[in-house]
């Protein structure tokens, strides 16, 4: 106790998406998923358990937090406290190098870093599988941010069998993601709310589950074969399938805005010009363009021409959890 531990976790972007839980309390997903961890976006979180505290204290990007984010953090720390057999409150200091709640998976890096720092500060010595299971309890996609490169989250059936594992941490493929931030505001519909509404009301949800299982097998083969084109085509197809569920929910909703569709059109136009570029989107309006390093300049110029106010960052495969 009273030992401050700081951990860094990078965000990940799913190439085969997770969209829906069969057990919302334990965050057990309806499908397995596969992601790429990115080097440019990460969260640093420091945790210290202190017997002098009367409640958990949280600062995010230097600002004290007292809203539902603190409640969610305390609920997560209750799991850690139960595992460690302690009842001490903690002080948490977190710095997010990711636009929060804008569809760039800030919760993935946030809860992965919190899981690593809090478990170690509480005296636990978890292996990476156990750390992945713990991170999952805060945010499903956080289970994958324990690992670098390509990682798969195995859906499983319960707390013991639902965790992520590495597919290829030292990525050999020439692959990068250009994150095109058109709208940095907080999304109106949270991921948890959106996915559970889709699973409850879309008539095509079961088809999504079946198709996703097939996509996952093909994606792992593409990674093993260093087949960038198949990876890109499949990632875009899977993302559009996921978002189509939201259009078919009752009532329908979408994370897209007009610029989202314009960027998707730009990506298609680039392909018509012979440039290998593919789009993927999470729960937000911003688009990630999957490409190879040789195409960086031409893609960035095309974006700047049509979207002069867009913020573009080039992200490469990133590392797994680390302690600072």
From TrEMBL:
<dbReference type="InterPro" id="IPR029765">
    <property type="entry name" value="Mev_diP_decarb"/>
</dbReference>
<dbReference type="InterPro" id="IPR036554">
    <property type="entry name" value="GHMP_kinase_C_sf"/>
</dbReference>
<feature type="domain" description="Diphosphomevalonate decarboxylase-like N-terminal">
    <location>
        <begin position="9"/>
        <end position="164"/>
    </location>
</feature>
<keyword id="KW-0547">Nucleotide-binding</keyword>
<comment type="similarity">
    <text>Belongs to the diphosphomevalonate decarboxylase family.</text>
</comment>
<protein>
    <recommendedName>
        <fullName>diphosphomevalonate decarboxylase</fullName>
        <ecNumber>4.1.1.33</ecNumber>
    </recommendedName>
</protein>
<dbReference type="Pfam" id="PF18376">
    <property type="entry name" value="MDD_C"/>
</dbReference>
<feature type="domain" description="Mvd1 C-terminal">
    <location>
        <begin position="178"/>
        <end position="311"/>
    </location>
</feature>
<keyword id="KW-0443">Lipid metabolism</keyword>
<keyword id="KW-0456">Lyase</keyword>
<keyword id="KW-0067">ATP-binding</keyword>
<dbReference type="InterPro" id="IPR053859">
    <property type="entry name" value="MVD-like_N"/>
</dbReference>
<dbReference type="InterPro" id="IPR041431">
    <property type="entry name" value="Mvd1_C"/>
</dbReference>
<keyword id="KW-0444">Lipid biosynthesis</keyword>
<dbReference type="Pfam" id="PF22700">
    <property type="entry name" value="MVD-like_N"/>
</dbReference>
<dbReference type="InterPro" id="IPR005935">
    <property type="entry name" value="Mev_decarb"/>
</dbReference>
<dbReference type="InterPro" id="IPR014721">
    <property type="entry name" value="Ribsml_uS5_D2-typ_fold_subgr"/>
</dbReference>
<dbReference type="InterPro" id="IPR020568">
    <property type="entry name" value="Ribosomal_Su5_D2-typ_SF"/>
</dbReference>
